[in-house]
Amino acid sequence: MPEYYRRNFHFQSNGYLGKSSADLYEHQVEILFSGAADAMRRLLIPSLKKHFAHAGDGTGLHFLEIGSGTGRLTRFIALAFPKAHITCVDLSSFYLKEAQLRLGSFHRIDYMQGKGEALPLVDGTFDAVFSCFLFHELPSDVRVAMIKEGKRLLKPEWPLWYGGFSAVG
Ligand SMILES: C[S@@+](CC[C@H](N)C(=O)[O-])C[C@H]1O[C@@H](n2cnc3c(N)ncnc32)[C@H](O)[C@@H]1O
With CB atoms counted within 10 Å of each terminal CB, which end of the chain scores lower, N or C? Predict the structure, then answer.
């Protein structure tokens, strides 16, 4: 685990590295964002729908979500693009396990424990690479490395497009 990752995010014991943290995560994010967290996650969908208007239900698309956590955004994307394949990456096995439990009925999702800034995946594999509520937690050199990694993993025909916000700083 990288050094920056081994701290108590969100004041939770064990940071991201514990089952109780994964169990509590969604509730405490809802409190942090006054009940608006899901609406903020769904802000990604209109842009993806516009960009992939030709793909309709997502047939033939492969998405990469970095820092997928408990899979809350993943579920919205899977509902918006029911035929797309989604690869979820997260450093926390506890959060990935929670996501797998939640998303068991979706059959086009796979899960990988790993660092978004260095992934053992083939160049040009994905139609879109995205994350939610992640970049504000990363040191700036890791942010840069993660954007470069995302660009490497994107299919070459797609331009690099980055949009985001951070609610914390
Ligand atoms: C604030 S949570 C966001 C989770 C989810 N995207 C959401 O909408 O709730 C950040 C997530 O990113 C993961 N994470 C942090 N640094 C990471 C890295 N370098 N590579 C992969 N995942 C990382 C954490 O384990 C955590 O699950």
Answer: C
**Can you give the residue ranges of every domain in the chain?**
3-153
What top-level class would CATH report for the domain 3-153? alpha beta
Residue 10 CA, closest ligand 1 atom number: 1
The 10s digit of each residue's pLDDT in 59-93 is 999 999 999 999 999 999 999 999 999 999 999 99
For 92-97, the CB contacts below 8 A with 24+ separation are: 92/16, 92/17, 92/22, 94/16, 94/17, 94/18, 94/19, 94/21, 94/22, 95/16, 95/21, 95/22, 95/25, 95/68, 95/69, 95/70, 96/68, 97/19, 97/22
Q: How confident is the model at residue 162 (pLDDT cuts 50, 70, 90)?
A: low
